[in-house]
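re: that chain from earlier
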Amino acid sequence: MKLQAIRTWAVAPPDGIGGRFWLIVKITTDSKIEGIGECYGIPFSSDIACKMVEDTFARFVAGEDPHHIETLFRRVYSAGFTQRPDLTLMGVFSGIEIAIWDILGKMADAPVHRLLGGKFHERLRTYTYLYPENPGDLKAPDVYHDGDIAAERALHYLDLGFSAIKQDPAGPYGFQGGRELSRKELARSEYCMRRIREAVGDRADILFGTHGQMTTSSAIRLARRIEPYDPLWFEEPCPPDQMEAIGKVARSTSIPVATGERLTTRVEFHQALKAGVSILQPNVGRSGGIWETKKIAQMAELFNAQIAPHIYCGPIAHAAAAHLSFGCPNFLILETIQSPFHDAILKKRLRWEDGYMLAPEEPGLGIELDEEVALAHSAPAGSGLHLEMCQVPLPSDNEKTITEL
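^ sequence. v structure.
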């Protein structure tokens, strides 16, 4: 069997949940078996990102045996005389590689998790962000920065069965690198954490995200403020290119430090582990694909660290992360998104029940793309990027949220 052709879709979720666009791929073999995958976070407009995927497939993948995952990874990893971690190139390859695993599962008439060593967990604990009641409504209450509204939404998600919720109250997330948070931003973050903890008590874990915006000193100040509310983790406190700084934060707080959504391949995750990060958050659509991320998880075991895959994207990368997680002894928790469009774009979807993902037993990824829905929600050429950062330099006395900027 040979990998023969590829098709790409850049899909714009109408509610914006999961990013500006999802880059979905379908690979077809010469025996007509098809597999779907998803590339995460390629930092170019949707039409250019699609061409990158198609070009990489034509150069390194077309005509190859789908079993040769290791060879395909090394070819793309070294493409153009790179041979080093590259977020864009690995985002391109990861989506292709996920689709190949879908094909391999269908060939073997087995779910992907069975091909990765079997099912260690019967179900996967999941968490959700606190989303507004009406996503996309600019006049909706600010669930991201208003601690009282955040507490109300936290109770809503507990009613849905979740036992872990996530909040990012410290923003805006600027392009300038690490910055010192203002006293107002620190106080707002502490208030949000306090109100959520008061609402949920011991019924749920709270995950505190920051998206790499702080200096080391500012991150330590914030960690001390939120420590009394016992968050499950303190996520990416410093910019992802400042791993030594992230490690210093980890050594200064009792809160476990997590990072990984903006890292790729074993090389960068090894640096995170050596720095002292105890929870890795690879996105399988960017970290090198399922096989490379399996290696990352195994490496983490040697550091007594856990994995909590990141999936702020579409449902295909979510499915790939789930299959990987079912076989990882050091799995902690899986991010999940339950939105109407995440459901609508799939004819067949993974099963989720009371805050847990159930193991798929269908061949491959166990999901089926609705191509008509994908085509009907195409992202326009020249679209904005998957995620954007605030382009305004922020002073150390900033009081504005991103919507105010």
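The first strand starts at residue 3 and ends at 11.
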